[in-house]
Amino acid sequence: MNGKSVLIDLSKCIGCRGCQVACKQWNQLPGEKTVNVGSHQNPQDLSAKTWTLVRFKETENNGKVDWTFFKDQCRHCIDPPCKYAAEDYAPDSIFIDKNGAVVYLPTTKKIEDDMNETCPYGIPRKDDNSGEWFKCNFCHDRIESGKEPACVKACPTGALTFGDRDKILEISKKRLQEMKLDHPNATLLDAEDVRWIYLLHEPEDYFQLGLRELDRFDRYAWRKLFKPKAPAWLAGGALALLFKKRDKRMKEKQTDEVSS
Amino acid sequence: MTNHWNDIANSDCILIMGSNAAENHPISFKYVTKAMENGAKLISVDPRFTRTSSKADIYTALRSGTDIAFLGGMIKYILDNNFYNKEYTAEYTNAAHLINEKFSFKDGLFSGYDPKKRTYDKSTWTYQVDKKGIPKRDTTLNNPNCVFQLLKKHFSRYNVDLVSKITGTPKNKLLEVYKTYSATGKTGKAGTIMYAMGWTQHTVGTQNIRTMAIIQLLLGNIGVAGGGVNALRGESNVQGSTDHCLLFHILPGYLKTPKASQPKLADYNNKYTPKTSDPNSANWWGNYAKYSVSFLKSMFGKNATKGNDFGYSWLPKLDDGTNYSWITIFQEMFKGKIKGFFAWGMNPACSGPNSDMTREAMEKLDWMVNVNLWETETGAFWKRPGADPKKIKTEVFLLPCAASMEKEGSITNSSRWMQWRYKAVDPPGDALPDAEMIHEIFVRLQKLYKKDGGKFADPILNLKWDYAHNGHIDIHAVAKEINGYDLKTGKLMASFSKLKNDGTTSSGNWLYCNSYTEKGNMAARRDNKDYSGIGLFSNWSWCWPVNRRIIYNRASVDQNGQPWDKEHPVIKWDAAANDGKGGWIGDVPDGGWVPMSNKEQTKWPYIMKPEGFARIFGMGLADGPFPEHYEPLECPVEQNMLSKVMLNPTSKAWHEEGGDMNKTAKACDPRYPFVATTYRVSEHWQTGAMTRQQPWLVELQPEMFVEMSKQLAKELGIKNGDKVIVESARGKVHAKAIVTVRFKPFKIGDNIIHEVGMPWCYGFMGLATGDSVNKLTPNIGDANTMIPESKAFLVNVKKEV
């Protein structure tokens, strides 16, 4: 397949947030006003002004403490549900460029769906003033100039690897096999469906932000069958259950971040 | 560092202790990651589970201030199990050397202690010598007076059960760390230590490092790739500042500052030039006078002649026995003894201990010159919260300076690499580079002295000052002077081995001689190819000494000059080189002498010691030739479980001077039941003077916080995110509570001791403000360096109502 991909090997992430700041700098996004809620993570969530966020989580299993860092952002789906949603309101507001970057334009303000719900990963965020939707744009302008995304450039440990999709898929699968020697539960998140591929060495420790392929496919299939405008309750019991499951996971994510 | 950043990738086992490298030196983690990809194990030992710990194969905690107990236990483990490298230990260290029979250690004190002066008479800390004056050695390591046996005896008390009681580290974790790390004693394996202020900022700071140096020597880890004793410097050019000796007790190149009792150059040179009668010892400091005279010629130029002792009398002298270090400066300032103060690129109002008293001390100044990018807490001390500017008479001059990208010059990093940098943009407004300011100040001063005279004008009038070009400082002229000149020909010196003591050569810093030669500015080289295979990058910039990337590298080979580690050779003797005369290939050898198998012509590898051997027995230190565990000044135990001596017996006892400046908590002070430590965060830099003005960084870490265990939080009724107050005998700070599993209570002896930690990056100026944790820290320092003990003291924590 054409286009670019990025492997996010979370076993190498040290939570330094170089990526978070690089994204702000390249896109000239303002720093948000924050407080310390009892965590090193800030801000607490993605927003129209924060397009990538390293989520911190502390765990303790059988007396063994761990601290995991999850760089949350748009996965740049091969076949993005958000693009389908846009088709009913502003067809050209979301486009996929030749490298596979899923890019939002200001005309996304015409979209009436809750894109946060539409997205299997809960990524897009609306700017309350303009009504536009925002998320990571794969630094498509940097890629046009032959550069890697800003976050990839900033990462000191090599947790982020950028390149042609075929090459990245190869590397991802190889890395997974190596990882499984020490971490038998290691997994790649939706590698066949997205361009930003997460390698989780201990999936249970993370926020379960990647839906299992089955869930995502189901939501997807239903959307194609029913009109995108149809509200969730029309989709039937099974679908409602799936939404509920995802909501529960999102809530768990919120509580986990603010550990008590 | 004895090694360098890239070299960490060569290691088989990396111990990160007294450092949180992933957090505070994140780029270095690139090399740690590489080493781990090649199978290296990472061990993180820290009172708190940090970002570094999250990547470690082994993590365990210890109570702040107990590193010598922890590491002493490792020494015992290595010796008991014979994991040490026998040949290296016997032949390259002073393990085989016999010590004066009168040397002893009892009840926590070495022989020669004077309790009134709090110093040691070191006359028993000496080698036994033969008729020629050469130290006697027993390479079988059996003689009861040899260093090896004395070491064994000293650390026999550090059994793992006792160590566990002192440190609070579980016994099985201690053994796991010991076993994993000491496996690097095997020939061909290398272990490295990455440490920082978590080790240095204690009253036993120097000895913390000494304990690790002993371990590294026993395991044969010095001089080899992937080994070494590696200090992660806390500031990007602090290595440069210590090399150029911006500290009271040293002159550039680690020469000593002369004392009042050394009125003549000959007195001074004789005192500091070590002697040896061993023909196999290179005794490199024996060249001392060449460096001191060359330095004087750089200072005073033509005015320095043989007839006037090369201007030696114009150098400032220390009053014998007087300490002019940081703590002393603010003690004296507090007493009103200091009238004028340059706070140059420094923020003492937040960075030194006991901030409230430090700020109050500044009120006694007549004037302060504060050089910084903008107004910081130090420049604004007179309008700090709670101060009445009307009552403060200090005149403050704020001189805006150029930032690092707004001027040309060099920075020396932890790897000793002097990297040249270019100017990218002009500084804003009237801001000037520091060198330009110094030039302007000096030129005006010299003019005033010429016109009006003044007390002892000679040093000012005779100072050579030819660093300007068209009225502006020429930084290349400065760099060239640092390198030095052959004054007979006017050409730049090629290396310090050619410096002379007769006034015909100059060098502002002998260590940097070779950095700017007739071949050009070596520090500006940018060949990023690695020709060595072990990441030396010898043609990228320049490092001291003479571009030797791994120092003590003649210990990386056996007696025949062949590398211990065949896969990562640093140097190698090639008998066929130089038309069969033989020569070294690889890194710049630490002296080009032949391998040790040629007993006639070789020199021992540790050339900076007069005897030529690495010191396991270190007689040069103030507090003992062997490390010994003592408790921090403010400690949570009634007794030192190892001896009768609580505090380092040679640390200057400021706390006994009392007064407002020296409020101290007693051991197990009921008012302050918890151990506190301080640290940094990725997001802020030092006192936050720069980073707390930056919205993206402020977004990440907006507020002062204190981290504590869930158990302590429960006891105190504190929930995650609550506002709390932390107080010590000296002050109090407001902070947000981060309640975390990453801190756990310690079992110390029979008691549960809690520890909390705070970052020191907050202050009252800037976009994000907060209380400076240094309001809490104590005024006492290490016995050798006098660096303040910011890493272990006592506090109380309570919820803010």
Order of helices and strands of chain A: EHEEHEEHEEHHEHEEHH
- Tell me the fraction of residues in β-strands of chain B, as a range: 15-25%
Report the radius of gyration of chain A as a whole number of Å: 18 Å
Query: Helix count of chain B, per DSSP?
Result: 21
Strand order, biggest sheet of chain B?
28-30-29-34-27-33
Q: Kindly provide the radius of gyration of chain B, computed on alpha-carbon positions and rounded to a whole number of angstroms.
A: 26 Å
Distance between the termini of chain A: 45 Å
- Please report the total strand number of chain A as a whole number: 10
Tell me the structural class of chain A: alpha+beta
Give the largest chain-chain interface (CB within 8 Å).
A-B, 37 and 39 residues
Mean pLDDT of chain B equals 97
What structural category do the secondary elements of chain B indicate?
alpha/beta
Broad shape of chain B: globular
Helical fraction of chain A equals: 25-40%
Oligomer: heterodimer
Notes on the protein architecture:
The complex is a heterodimer of chains A (260) and B (801). With 260 residues, chain A is of the alpha+beta class. In chain A, 32% of the residues lie in helices and 18% in strands. Chain A contains eight helices and ten strands. Chain A has helices spanning 18-27, 81-87, 115-118, 140-144, 150-154, 165-182, 213-225, 237-257, and strands at 4-9, 53-61, 64-72, 94-96, 102-104, 125-126, 133-134, 160-164, 187-188, 196-200. Chain A has a four-stranded mixed sheet. Chain B has 801 residues and is of the alpha/beta class. Chain B is built from 21 helices and 34 strands. Chain B is 22% helix and 16% strand. The two termini of chain B are 48 Å apart. In chain B, helix 3 runs antiparallel to helix 6. In chain B, a hairpin with a 3-residue loop joins strand 10 (250-251) and strand 11 (255-256). In chain B, the strands form twelve sheets. Chain B has a six-stranded mixed sheet with strand order 28-30-29-34-27-33. Chain B has a five-stranded parallel sheet with strand order 3-2-1-8-9, sandwiched between helices. The A-B interface holds A 12, 14-18, 20-21, 24-25, 30-40, 42-43, 58-60, 65-69, 156-158, 258-260 and B 22-23, 26-27, 29-30, 33, 49, 51-55, 59, 681-683, 694-703, 705, 719-722, 736-742.
